[in-house]
Input
Amino acid sequence: MTRIEGSVALVTGGSRGIGRALVEALYERGAKKVYATARDPRTVTHPDAVPLALEVSDPASVAAAAELAQDVTVLINNAGASVNANFLDSPVDDVRREFETNFYGPLLVTRAFVPVIERNGGGHLLNVHSVLSWIGLAGSYSASKAAFWSQTNSLRLDLKPRGIDVTGLHVGYVDTDLTAGIDAPKSTPEGVAAQALDGIETGAFEVLADDLSRQVKAGLSAGVEALYPQLTA
Ligand SMILES: NC(=O)c1ccc[n+]([C@@H]2O[C@H](COP(=O)([O-])OP(=O)(O)OC[C@H]3O[C@@H](n4cnc5c(N)ncnc54)[C@H](OP(=O)(O)O)[C@@H]3O)[C@@H](O)[C@H]2O)c1
Output
């Protein structure tokens, strides 16, 4: 079980949205130090956070961040993009770009930080997925989050014997820049961050942070028609 109090955490995409709320909540729970990454570290405005430059799809940038943050015990792969490329009409490069950020990015970051966390005596990995990992309503975004979910499931097995517990976070709409153009009920970043940290501290394999995520996950075992009623309408 991982205690937040006294931990050293790194939150990718920690300057805004869910990432910033995670940084705030980590300090509230007694984290010793929290690195908040951004592509432009000047955008990290949290007064206590340690800003760190990071482009998750760039191996050199990931290596440089890991070199600077050798004391990390809790890694949170939060950074993500929402390209939502349509599989029939959008340029295939848009699909690739989404996977670079949402699948390969966290993979590079995790590979760089696993040895760091191990050297520090073990710790925790939290990967931020989506309800859309389980329902293909957003083209390349859904696909990238489904693949990321699968990555997390494999890593959980690989990392357990190495002293690193793994939690996956699933949630529907959250009120951030990512959903600025969407008019629908949204969770608050603060509420999602609190549930995510509860998940870390209780050793939960998964955190389902809203009703929609719980409903969709339950629908997975009910057949394709349950999740996609438009197919039989
Ligand atoms: N909002 C939702 O409804 C919702 C729902 C489910 C899951 N999620 C997931 O939650 C996570 C956070 O999203 P959010 O809603 O807080 O979005 P946001 O406010 O748009 O923030 C996205 C964050 O990701 C970072 N980022 C994007 N591309 C990056 C790259 N190539 N390299 C490094 N950092 C990159 C951004 O960093 P910069 O500051 O450098 O731009 C920013 O901090 C994402 O993984 C998202 O998919 C969001």
Q: What stands out?
A: The helical segments are 17-28, 59-68, 92-119, 139-159, 189-202, 211-219, 224-227. Residues 92-119 form the longest helix (28 residues).
